[in-house]
Every structure is written in C-alpha cells, then in structure tokens.
Amino acid sequence: MSYSSLSPLTGPNPTPDPDDENAVQNNYSSAIGALILSLVFLLGVPGNLFIVWSILARIRQRSVTTLLILNLACADGFLMALSIFFIIYLAMRTWIFGNAMCKILFYLCNSNMYASIFLITLMSVHRFLAVVFPHTLYRLITRKVVRRVILGTWVLVMVISIPSLVFRDVKKETDEMNRTTYLCAPNHTLRKHVRFQYAFETVAGFIIPYAIIITSYVVILKRLRETKFQRNVRNEKLILTIVITFGLFWLPYHVINMVQVCEEVSTFHVQTDMVYIRAVTSTLAFISSCANPVLYTFAGKSYIKKNGFAFMAKLFEGTLSDQTGTKSTRLTTYDNVRESNVDCQNPTVASTPENGNLE
C-alpha cells in the first residue's frame, strides 16, 4: 500500500490533482487528520510494545501462532512509531523531511500492509494444518522451519513493496499567495503505472491472501463440526477476530483502489469527491495497526484481575499454546487438536485437566 492518503489523507492519485494540495492546505482536514494520527500513535505504540514485552518476557514456550503475533506486533508498532512523521506533515502542511524520507516512509508503510496480511494468512494456514493434518504438522513444524518461513515472508514483503519507492516523490507547489509548499505525492507518469501499482497491491495484498484465509477457515469449521469437538472453536475465535477486523478496516481502501483502476482502463468515472473518500478509507486502514492490542485486551479481560500485567501472556498461553514434543526444537500442533483426534476414540481423555483443558 502507498498510504498515500496520509500525505495528508488524500489518497493515491494517478496524476497531480489540485484537490491533493487543497487537502494539505486546508486547516480543518489537516487538524482532524493530525488528531486521529495522534490518538493512533498514543494507542498503537505502547499497545504493540506491550504485546512484544508480554511474549518475550512472559512466555517461555512460544507457539507458532504466538511467534506470528509477535512479528505482527513488531510490524504494527513500527508503523505506529512512523506516524509521528505524518502528524508533523499534517500540522505543518508541508513536507520537510526531503525526497529520500518521502520514499522510505511510504515504502515502510507499504511493507507494513503486506507484512500484516501475510502474517495473518500464515496464522490461518497454520490453524488449517493443525486441524486438518495434525500428525503431518507435528513432523514438519520445527523452530527452524518457522523461522525460515517468517524470514522468507519479510524478504517477500520488502521486495513487493518496491513500487512505492519508485512511484513517490516530493513536489513543489506554489499557491496564489506565492506561498511554497512541498508534497510527498504519487509521481505516476503513465496511466499503466496507476493500473499496475494499485491493481497489484489490491490483488497481492488483499484478494489472494483473503482467498487463502477464507478457504482455510471453511475447511477448519467443517472439520470441527465433523469431530464435534467444541473447545477448538474457542481457539479459533481470536485469530478469526483478527482476520475479520483487518478485512473490515482495509476493504474500503481496496475498493477505492479498484475503482481508480477501473477509471484508468475505461471511460467510467465516479461523480464524487474521491479526495475525501480516500481520506476516510485510508484513515481506517492506518487505524487497523493499533486495533489488535484492543482486541487482545478484550479477549483477555477475564485474566486481568487475577494476572495483572501478565494477562496478555496468560491469554496467549491459554488459547494459543502448542504442545511441545520431546525435542526442545520442535513446535507441534495445539493440545486441543491432538485431543480432538483422541476424542473420537475416548471422549473422557479430552475432558481431563491433565490433557490441557483450560476451561
């Protein structure tokens, strides 16, 4: 994603548009944008840092899902830290950080979009393997494999975000009062560049990942119904909530992306103010990076009174724990998945506390 709208809340535009400059220079829109980003910064940075601390300091045995949540929190927390640059941009209504920072910051924002959805997709695929192929997962999922997959994901993210480096530059603008402002804005010179960048980021960053996620959960829910092992449903809820929340925040942005692509390939034009529509959709997309700490807090509220600041670690241990094999280097499937296979043969086994019943 280009997060172009945060420059300042105007959205990615294929050609220079006077409305872009108006959004920067408008006191009202800039003030609202700066206020929203300030709230996002104050909530997102400490919230994601708390997740990272909870996992690193409080959890000794980290499951696959916990490792993925750790990486997701690092990505979101880093993006929230970058929001300070956009707050300054909106407050001053001119870009003061130079052309290199213009490219780098939007490149990092774009990388965050891909990293978030890819890590969420990996969570869903892991749950699919754990529920549908538990014995295969037991043999294949080692710490070395997990680290390589996560590292490969980050490398892929950095590569496919390169268009945001290419299609972004600082523009100099002079208004009728002879005042000079600098904008960090899209620099598409050809219509095909618009089609490529926004179609690619929507297909690679939303459509394909969500097709995988939806397919995984359809199979998971079907398998859970077949085994009639209801405790598994509890373990799906948190990940499924993350998936749905991310989709709700990002869907409007990608819809506008595809509308713009359609405008570039046809005579179709939307008779509305795209600048402010993009302002809303891109703000929602940015807010998504501070949503997960809130979700985890609500999910773990039953642990807060008893465990205090350790409630988040207790949440991850209680609903996302993997059973460790005899070798310390192995990450295996969840307790409840193993139990669900035993349950069909011996229903009493899964209900005993010794077998990991958390309820």
Q: What low-confidence regions span 5 or more consecutive residues with pLDDT below 50?
A: 1-5, 7-25, 319-359
| Name given to the CATH architecture | Up-down Bundle
- Tally of individual helices: 14
Cα-atom radius of gyration: 23 Å
Structural class: mainly alpha
Report strand order across the widest sheet: 1-2
Range of strand content: 5-15%
By CATH, the topology is Rhopdopsin 7-helix transmembrane proteins
Could you say how many structural domains there are in total? 1
How far apart are the first and last residues' alpha carbons, in Å?
A: 41 Å
Number of strands: 4
The biggest beta sheet, please?
2 strands, antiparallel
Q: What would CATH call the class?
A: Mainly Alpha
Mean pLDDT: 75
Order of helices and strands: HHHHHHHEEHHHHHHEEH
Q: What's the shape?
A: globular
CATH superfamily: Rhodopsin 7-helix transmembrane proteins
Provide the helix percentage. over 70%
Q: Could you characterize what this model shows?
A:
The chain is mainly alpha-helical. It has one domain (4-344): Rhodopsin 7-helix transmembrane proteins (Rhopdopsin 7-helix transmembrane proteins, Up-down Bundle). Helix content is 71%, strand content 5%. The chain has helices at 18-25, 27-58, 64-92, 98-132, 134-140, 143-160, 163-166, 191-227, 231-265, 274-287, 291-299, 301-307, 311-320, 335-343; strands at residues 169-174, 180-185, 322-324, 331-334. The strands form 2 sheets. Strands 1-2 form a two-stranded antiparallel ribbon. A hairpin with a 5-residue loop joins strand 1 (169-174) and strand 2 (180-185). Helix 4 packs antiparallel against helix 6, helix 4 packs parallel to helix 8 and helix 9 (231-265) runs antiparallel to helix 11 (291-299). The longest helix has 37 residues, at 191-227. The two termini are 41 Å apart. Residues 1-5, 7-25 and 319-359 have low confidence and may be disordered. InterPro entries: ATII_rcpt (IPR000248), Formyl_rcpt-rel (IPR000826), GPCR_Rhodpsn (IPR000276), GPCR_Rhodpsn_7TM (IPR017452). This is Leukotriene B4 receptor 2b. The chain crosses the membrane at residues 31-56, 68-92, 112-133, 145-167, 198-218, 238-256, 276-299. It holds the Pfam family 7tm_1. Keywords: Cell membrane, Disulfide bond, G-protein coupled receptor, Glycoprotein, Membrane, Phosphoprotein, Receptor, Transducer, Transmembrane, Transmembrane helix.
